[in-house]
Amino acid sequence: MKESKEDLYFVRFKKKVYFWILPFLISATFLGWLFDGINNKNDFVMYYMFPALDIWLLFVLFILIFKDKYLPKMEIITMMIISIVYLSWLADLMIFNRKTLEASGGLGEITNWIPLYYIFIFLVFSRRIALMVAGSIFFMSCMIGVISIITFSDVINHQAVDTLFQFYLSNAVYVFALYFLQHLKEAYIHKQTMDVMANTDFLTGMPNRRMLEETLHHFLDHPNKSFSIILFDIDRFKCINDTYGHAAGDTILKELSSLISGKMSQGDVFGRWGGEEFLVILPHMNSNDAASFAETLRKSVENNEFTEVDKVTVSFGVTQYSENDQARHLLKRADIALYNAKDKGRNQVQVQ
């Protein structure tokens, strides 16, 4: 199945995150092995599992340099390996290493990396699946703690119990905080998507009439400087639809939108007014300059090679803001100018 642009963007974003994080994680595990594991063959996790984890992470880093498509599989395998190392390390500290509990109950460096581990889970999976995976890991870690307390009940002191309690409580907070943060993120993205859809023409991807009206009213509410608008439409568009089909008409609308949007300057507003009609709002431009710009657009359309039709022409109506104008006044004058352009033979610019 072909990836969407959004999926591809997210994959590349995660790839950048991993390129930043993996070198630090590799360095941390290597130093842990160098200082604590290299001379301690009895510590299975530190002596054997840490080097294996390092080798795997280096392999992942190398693969990601060349192939994005392997990222999902690499994430799953990496998460499984890290989970095994994490639970093994935890079991070694709480069950097999009695001194940990006999002393202060401290868990050492492992607590520094727990937040990153849970973040990784929520980065790999969707919110609900991530909650189930993180919850399962948390449950297994709790079982290790319970076994530890039962097994070493004779040596565990109050400080050790408090340390274990704080450790598991903080883990639970990490999991639920990440779950609700991801929920908030999804809600925010959904709202942003709905806002974009409400203000964007589905076919062309340009601002729709709603957005254009809001922008026009914004200019009218702040009339410090003059501005002009251009209303234009495609000549004989109904004939194009009847002759070549509506699919061809849609293609022309999209190609025209792309062509015109490429001619806009910063601050200019261009969108689809409705049907085959489009509107351009030109800040700080009088009617003469706007008419010259419209003529440039007209020639660009006339000389453009469209996919479905050999030649497409456009008629333009131009008008300038006058003091005390309302939106309906501007649009009416632009519409009259457009009608005059049609009446005088089409494929031209008229000013009202």
Task: Offer a concise description of the structure.
The protein has helices spanning 5-37, 44-66, 71-96, 98-102, 110-124, 127-151, 158-199, 209-221, 237-244, 246-261, 287-303, 327-343, and strands at residues 227-234, 269-274, 277-283, 314-320, 349-351.
The residue fraction in helices comes out at: 55-70%
Which class of secondary structure composition applies to the elements? alpha+beta
Q: In what order do the strands lie side by side in the largest sheet? A: 2-3-1-4-5
Task: Count every beta strand, where a strand is a DSSP E run of 2 or more residues.
Answer: 5
Shape: elongated
Uncertain stretches: none
SSE topology string: HHHHHHHHEHHEEHEHE
> How many domain units?
2
Number of helices: 12
Beta-strand percentage? 5-15%
Q: Measured on Cα atoms, how large is the radius of gyration?
A: 32 Å
Give the termini distance in whole angstroms: 53 Å
Q: Sheet with the most strands?
A: 5 strands, mixed
Mean pLDDT: 87
